Amino acid sequence: MEYLIVALSSYLLGSIPFGFILTKIFLKKDIRDIGSGNIGATNALRTGNKTLGYGTLLLDITKAVLPVLYVKFNYPDYIFIASLSAFLGHVFPIWLKFKGGKGVATYVGILFSINIVLGLVFVVSWAVTFLISKYSSLSSLTGSLMIPVYLIIFENYNSVFFIIMFVLIFYTHRENVKRLKNKEETKTKIY
C-alpha cells in the first residue's frame, strides 16, 4: 500500500504542467501553440520571456525534488519508485491528456535529490555539450548518458535505473534525434 501512495503522490506532483500554467497566466497563451509545442523549460524559453523559461525550469526541477527527498528520508526503499513516478508524471500528465514535456528538468531534480554528485555530473556534461553545440536536446541526451557511464566507471554502482532513465529520455527526444541526424535541429538561446 505504501508504495502505491508513494507512486501516486509522486506522479501527481510530477504531472503539474508549470510551463503550461505560467504561459497561460503571464502571456495568456497556450504553450502548446508555441515553438515545438512542448510544455517544458526549453520551449518556455521560446516564448521570448526568459523569466518564464527559467521559472518553468526551476519549478519543473522542484516538483521532482519535493517527493523524491521526502521519500528518500521517510521511505528510502521506494526512492526509485518516487523518482520514476515523478518523471512519468511530467512526461504523461493526467491534466493534459498525458501529453507533457520531455522530462529533463524533472530528471535533474531527481538526480540532485538522490545524490548531489549525480546532479553535478549531469549539469557539467550538459553545459560542456551545450557550449560546443548549442543544442539543448543533444546536451540533455549527453547528460543523461553520462550518469550510468559515471556510475559504472567510477562508482561500481548498479546503474539499471539510470540506464532506464536514459532510454526514456532518448524516447522523449526521438524527434530531436531525427532532426539532429538530418541537421535540422534548432539551436537554443539560453540567455
For the structure shown, list the relevant keywords.
191 residues, 0% strand, globular, 71% helix, mainly alpha
Sequence stretches where pLDDT stays below 50 over 5 or more residues = none
Strand tally, please? 0
The helical percent reads over 70%
The structural domain count equals 1
* Secondary-structure class: mainly alpha
Describe the structure.
The chain contains ten helices and no strands. By secondary structure, the protein is mostly helical. The chain has one domain. The radius of gyration is 16 Å and the shape is globular. The termini are far apart. The model has no long low-confidence stretch (mean pLDDT 94).
Concise account of the structure shown:
By secondary structure, the chain is mostly helical. It contains ten helices and no strands.
List the topology elements.
Layout: H1 2-14, H2 18-27, H3 41-45, H4 50-74, H5 79-91, H6 104-114, H7 116-133, H8 136-155, H9 160-172, H10 174-181
Helix pairs in contact: 1-4, 1-5, 2-4, 4-5, 4-6, 5-6, 6-7, 7-8, 8-9
